[in-house]
């Protein structure tokens, strides 16, 4: 039973403040509809960037579907939120995203999906598809700022 965090890193061609804002303010543009309650009904996503703020997927039929709660926000350096997407709501996981400046003016975006416990680890394997979502974030950052 592997409970280690899933980790990915991306380099994007914009400074941390822009990379952070793109993550938070544009999540509805880069989030992949396949990872929502109904891909055909997907209408966007939102992160409320304050402690206690919600992470929401917007669905045509269901409205705003809460999938997490922000637990730490330190713009433009770090964002942490719980996630109940694909796991039992009683046993949420944790998503941590850090934004570090690079000498060339870009940003190293470090993504970690952790909080795996005996109660939710059976869902961990399906999250191997994170690159399919996060590649869209990196592509949007490159398209806008590359």
UniProtKB/TrEMBL annotation:
Stored Pfam families: AHSA1
SUPFAM superfamilies: Bet v1-like
Residue ranges constituting the Activator of Hsp90 ATPase homologue 1/2-like C-terminal domain according to the UniProt record: 14-139
Domain of life: Bacteria
InterPro entries: ASHA1/2-like_C (IPR013538), START-like_dom_sf (IPR023393)
Family per similarity comment: Belongs to the AHA1 family.
Protein name per UniProt: Activator of Hsp90 ATPase 1 family protein
Source organism of this protein record: Cellulomonas fimi (strain ATCC 484 / DSM 20113 / JCM 1341 / CCUG 24087 / LMG 16345 / NBRC 15513 / NCIMB 8980 / NCTC 7547 / NRS-133)
């Amino acid at each position: 039973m592997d409970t280690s965090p899933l980790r990915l890193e991306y380099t994007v061609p914009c400074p941390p403040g822009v990379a952070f804002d793109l993550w938070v303010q544009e999540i509805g543009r880069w989030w992949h509809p396949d990872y929502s309650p109904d891909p055909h009904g997907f209408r966007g996503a939102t992160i409320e960037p304050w402690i206690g703020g919600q992470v929401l997927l917007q669905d045509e039929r269901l409205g705003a579907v809460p999938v997490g709660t922000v637990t730490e926000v330190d713009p433009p350096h770090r964002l942490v939120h719980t996630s109940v997407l694909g796991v039992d709501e009683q046993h949420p996981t944790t998503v941590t995203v850090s934004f570090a400046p690079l000498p060339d003016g870009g940003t190293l975006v470090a993504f970690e999906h952790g909080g795996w416990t005996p109660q939710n680890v059976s869902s961990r394997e399906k999250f191997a598809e994170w690159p399919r979502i996060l590649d869209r974030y990196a592509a949007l950052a490159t398209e806008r700022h590359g």
